[in-house]
UniProtKB/TrEMBL annotation:
Signal peptide: none annotated. It comes from the Bacteria. InterPro entries: Rv2466c-like, Thioredoxin-like_sf. Residues 193-217 are annotated as: Disordered. SUPFAM superfamilies: Thioredoxin-like. This is DSBA-like thioredoxin domain-containing protein. Transmembrane segments: none annotated.
Length: 217
């Protein structure tokens, strides 16, 4: 059984698709995905970004903070379910980022509503910063999410930004993409494979960034 670690911010549509792909892979390959929270707003706090992206980020601190608070109080096993609850509401149901979003996501996974207070608090931003650093250390500080860590042929961690794909591969198609990612992970010296998107942006709705580049910083 192979374990893959995925860092993603629930507000990021591209990372959401990657997370759904990994859930598909679990059904067709002997692998298990562990999910960790990442904060795009914190990652870009002191960076120069486009004004529209700054405005988008400034409205979306909450979900990652709520997940961090839930993990602190209830352990890492709640992260995957809570990120899924947030992501479904944001990218499938097209909900806005507000307190009701947090309350509904928490209720779905049986967590106390007072955790929603963390959305407006900086108390756990240092914890999020440490998680961000762990995600990007083997990938590259100038990248973002989705950040995927998986074991290489010698057991060492191999990490990538991505894969960025839309729509979500299903069934055996998901498994074949996983096979390809593992093949690349086992190729010594491999670092990048990229092309411009040649199809319309089909990332799920929900106010997600729609950029010419698929890179979400």
């Amino acid at each position: 059984m192979v374990t893959a670690d995925l860092w993603f911010d629930p507000v990021c549509p591209w990372a959401w698709i990657t997370s759904r792909w990994l859930m598909e892979v679990e059904g067709v390959r002997p692998m298990r995905a562990r999910v960790h929270v990442f904060s795009l707003a914190l990652h870009n706090q002191d960076r120069e970004v486009d004004p529209w992206y700054r405005a988008w980020l400034d409205q979306r601190w909450g979900p990652a903070r709520v997940v961090a608070a839930a993990e602190r109080a209830h352990g890492g096993e709640v992260v995957r379910a809570l990120c899924t609850a947030f992501g479904t509401r944001l990218h499938v149901d097209k909900r806005p980022v507000d307190r009701e979003l947090s309350l509904d996501a928490l209720a779905e996974v049986g967590l106390p509503p007072d955790l929603a207070d963390a959305a407006g608090s900086t108390a756990l931003d240092d914890v999020l910063a440490a998680g961000n650093a762990a995600a990007l250390a083997p990938v590259g500080e100038d990248l973002g999410v989705p950040a995927l860590h998986l074991p290489g042929p010698d057991g060492e961690v191999v990490a990538f930004f991505g894969p960025v794909v839309s729509p979500t591969p299903r069934g055996e198609a998901a498994g074949l993409l996983w096979d390809g990612v593992r093949l690349l992970a086992g190729t010594e010296g491999f670092s990048e494979l990229k092309r411009a998107r040649s199809r319309p942006d089909t990332a799920p709705a929900g106010g997600g960034p729609r950029r010419r580049s698929a890179r979400v910083r």
